[in-house]
Hints:
This protein has helices at 11-22, 38-45, 49-58, 70-76, 93-98, 100-121, 157-171, 196-205, 223-238, 258-269, 301-319, and strands at residues 2-6, 26-31, 59-63, 83-86, 125-128, 138-140, 177-182, 185-186, 210-212, 217-219, 221-222, 245-249, 255-257, 275-277, 286-289.
Amino acid sequence: MRILVTGANGFIGNHLCIKLFEEGHQIVGLDQTENTSDFLIHYKDNQSVEVQTKMEENWSMLRRDLTDESTVYDLKKLGQFDLIYHLASPIGVDKITNNSKETFRSTKLINDAMDQYCKDTKTPIVFSSSSEVFGESENITNDSYYKIKQLSDSPRWSYAMSKAYTEMLFHLSDYKSSIVRFFNVVGPGQETPGMVIPSFFKAALKNNSLIIKENGIRSYCHVKEAIEKLIHVGNGLYDNEYNKQSFNIGNTKNVISAFILAKKIIDITESESVIEQLDSKQQLKTRILTEDNFEIENIPIDNILKDCYEYYKSTDSQTA
C-alpha cells in the first residue's frame, strides 16, 4: 500500500515507518521537525547499501506543519494514499501543562486539517488518540470511554479534550476511520523530555539520583508490541472490518510502580544512583489497561528494559 504517516519523526512514528517499510509498503512521512531522529539515522546506517537504496525509493519525508492551511493542499498534490496513520500531535508533559491553551488550539488545527483532507480524498484514517481522555486514577477497560470524567481544572485536560474532540470528529465522518489510544508505550528511541523510563536510564547511566515526582502505577507496553497492534487495526480498517471502532493499545501484564521501575533500572545498569521521592506520602496514581483487544504476545517489562538499556547505553556513550 501507499501510506501516509503524520508525526513520522516522533517515537512511535519512527517505529511505525520502519515496520511498514520492512513489510514492503511505500511510505510518505509528514512531520514539522527539520531533523531526522538519531534512532532513524542509526537504523539506516545499519542497513546494507541495497536496503538503503530501497529506503530512498520507497520512503520520503515531507517537512510541513499541519497547522498551516496550505499543508492539506500540498498533500493532495502528492496523489492518493491507501491509508493514513495520523500520529501528529503536541508532545511533552511540560509543554502541554505550561501551554494548555496553545496545546488545545494547535491540536484542533492539526486534526481539523486531516479531517478536511480525508473528506476531500475519502482516505481511511487511523487516529492516535490518548489514554489521557480517561482522566486520572482509573483501571481502564474497553468500555471506559463512556465513563470519561467531567471537565477538571488540570492544564493537561486541554490535551485530553482536544483528543476527545477529534475522536468525535472522525467518528462522525463519512470516510473510514478507526481510533487507537496508546497506554504508556516505551522502548528504544524514546527521547521526549519528562518521560519516566528515558529519564531514569539517563540518570542511572550518569550515577545521578532517580527522582520520582509521582509514584504512579502504570502498565508499560513495548513499542514493537504497540506497532504490531496498530498495524493490525490499520489493516482491519483498510479491509472494512474496523470502521468507526476504537481500540486501547497497551500491555495488560506489565503493571509496575515508579519506585519498582527505578530499582529495576538501577539494577540493570549496575548504577550507584539512589532513588529520591519528592513526596513519600503521595498516594499511588494509576492508569492501567485491564482489557486487551488483541491476541498478540505481551513483551515482559524486563525485556523492555533490556532493549531500552542497550539503546540508551549506546547513545549515552556517543554524547559523553
